[in-house]
Amino acid sequence: xxxxxxxxxxxxxxxxxxxxxxxxxxxxxxxxxxxxxxxxxxxxxxxxxxxxxxxxxxxxxxxxxxxxxxxxxxxxxxxxxxxxxxxxxxxxxxxxxxxxxxxxxxxxxxxxxxxxxxxxxxxxxxxxxxxxxxxxxxxxxxxxxxxxxxxxxxxxxxxxxxxxxxxxxxxxxxxxxxxxxxxxxxxxxxxxxxxxxxxxxx
Length: 202
Known about the structure:
With 202 residues, this protein is an alpha/beta fold. The chain has one domain (2-192). Helices cover 25% and strands 27% of the residues. It is built from three helices and nine strands. The strands form two sheets. The chain has a seven-stranded mixed sheet, with helices on both faces. Strands 1-2 form a two-stranded antiparallel sheet.
């Protein structure tokens, strides 16, 4: 699954770098990456039982879904969500379909012209907290790959400089969080050692 994630991200990055002005919002990037992931995993399905906690949703027979989804609720049951999630094949029988564990989660920010710094730090923190939750609430622990992506529009006058020219650690860690910065001219990443969050120079 990690190889397919990497290919989907690479294709999305390539489109952004070629046609940045066609991506006017984070949702535009999210939609493109979602389709790339769905197309890369057409044969992947997760099977779920109809009974138990899922019976309250009206399911009468076992069902299956594609594990790639958007705006997926977090474990806390709050309004916060992941932009894109790949649900774990290792299910939680005590949780309903809309609260299953994530194997991969992606958070996207777009640094737009005329706007200040987007909330990339809270995205990194959210992913680190979820990784911690996966490690502390499941036995055996479950691997989690978190990817925080900051796309910097070429007409934005400010942007991150601390990570530029850096490609450190695993860009898609088997169990960890990586921060990616994408500009018109490059794609850099840094694997995050929790709870460290990099500083920006703007």
